Amino acid sequence: MSVPFFRSSWKEPEAADRVSTAWTRVLDSGCFILGPAVQRFETALARRLGPRQVVGVNSGTDALVLALRLLDLKPGDEVVLPSYTFFACFEAVLRSGAQPVLCDSAPDDFIARAQEVAAKLTPRTRAVLAVPLFGDASALPGIAQLCRDNGLILVEDAAQALGAHAWAPDRGRVPVGGWGDLSTMSFYPTKTLGAIGDAGALSSARPELMERALSLRNHGLSGSVHAEVGYNSRMDALQAEVLLLGLEFLDGWLARRQAIARHYLAGLSDLHGMSLPADREGHAWNCFVLRCARRGDVQARLAEAGVETKIYYERPIHRQPACRPPFGEMDLPHASAHAREALALPIFPGMHEVEVERVIAAVRQAVA
Ligand SMILES: *Cc1c(COP(=O)(O)O)cnc(C)c1O
Question: Could you tell me the residue range of the domain that residue 320 belongs to?
Fold first, then answer.
């Protein structure tokens, strides 16, 4: 039996039936882009994120580009972001005209915490782009406090962590997507809330920002005039219908992700030669990523056993060819070390129990 890295929950019969019905409704309506389905999705997601507004766009990357555009950054302004993250974070900061400042990961973890961010603050820092990587929201309270103390804007890239939460001293339990002055989300098919194509969203509690995002996603249109130069970043009705259904399934999917993660943690905890991710409260488990020194060898053995794995991320941003110069000379030792050792196991809500057991057995053999 082989175990794929990912299988979409939309292929399961009950979900597929509901998608067919919803998509037929879209066909009949003739309204394919934006419109009532997108509005219904924005309202439903906003309800989940607390007192916030949501604007649907066509990808998580565009959500980041729009969020940074809304900050009106100037050349010389700096935005601190982790080097160990998906490349889109860096692209969006660069496109905003501001200077990206890359920070290291924590020594024992993939994510950057307040301490790593604080090391990169200068008088020119305007914003921090925080990334609850792999679904781990545990660094957000510290980073939010750091931003408050220093008068910085917090942008939260919640692409991998919708469904996660962390605790704020003044607000209690705050869902991921509700932490940032601006928060961005991706509904790429493998994320915790996945579409059947590209889609994304941004959220904020500040209506004036959301008003402007609504205009920017549609060429800067405001009424019948172009108030500013915008983008085509509209969400499709077909994706909005899928995402509305997905919101109904989301808590069940998250519970299943958590059960699989706990099963992995229990089944692998006694192994030497690798470290397991920490089981933190509020984790959304979008990815389950090990660190092991003999990664190449372990990955090859898992492939032989029919278990598909992936590497997030092969290189941190400062080691990407597109970024050197000037970033190539930076020394971010933890990010570089993690990139050599990271190995992601399959984790998706439709994973069968026998598949989970198969992965555990294969990993135990591979590291033996
Ligand atoms: C997936 C992802 C994005 C980009 O989302 P797309 O919808 O693929 O454009 C941005 N940031 C992070 C951390 C991601 O994982």
Answer: 250-367
Cβ proximity of 63 and 57 under 8 Å: yes
pLDDT in tens, 80-93: 999 999 999 999 99
Report pLDDT for 173.
96
Rounded distance, CA 25 to CA 361, Å? 45
**In a shared domain, residues 41 and 109:** yes
Tens of pLDDT, residue by residue over 172-220, are 999 999 999 999 999 999 999 999 999 999 999 999 999 999 999 999 9
Alpha carbon of 177 to ligand 1 centroid (Å): 14
Quote the ligand 1 centre to 366 CA distance (angstroms).
31
Residues 59 and 208 in one domain: yes
The total number of structural domains in the chain stands at 2
Whether residue 239 has its Cβ less than 6 Å from ligand 1 = no
Q: Is the CB of 89 under 6 A from ligand 1?
A: yes
Closest protein CA for atom 5 of ligand 1: 60
From 245, 266, 296, give the residue that closes a domain.
Answer: 245
- Angle, helices 207-216/60-69, rounded to nearest 10 degrees: 120
The answer on 288 and 229 residing in a single domain is: no
* Crossing angle of the two packed helices 237-268 and 353-367, in degrees rounded to 10: 50
Query: How far, in Å, is the centroid of ligand 1 from the Cα of 270?
Result: 33
Q: Does residue 91 lie within any of the structural domains?
A: yes
Say if CB 37 and CB 237 are below 8 A apart.
yes
Q: Which of 129, 186, 191 to mutate to test the pocket of ligand 1 (most atoms within 8 A of CB)?
A: 186
**What CATH number does residue 326 fall under?**
3.90.1150.10
Residue 192 belongs to a domain with what CATH number?
Answer: 3.40.640.10
Map residue 307 onto helix, strand or coil: strand
Q: Does some domain include residue 152?
A: yes
**What's the pLDDT at 245?**
98
Token pair recorded at residue 251: 């808590």
Atom of ligand 1 nearest to the CA of 200: 7
Ligand 1 atom having least distance to the Cα of 199: 7
The pLDDT of residue 284: 98
112-125 tens-digit pLDDT? 999 999 999 999 99
Q: What separation in Å is there between the alpha carbon of 29 and the centre of ligand 1?
A: 30
Q: How far apart are CA 37 and CA 13, in angstroms?
A: 23
| Ligand 1 atom at minimal distance to the Cα of residue 186 | 7
* 3 occurs within a structural domain: no
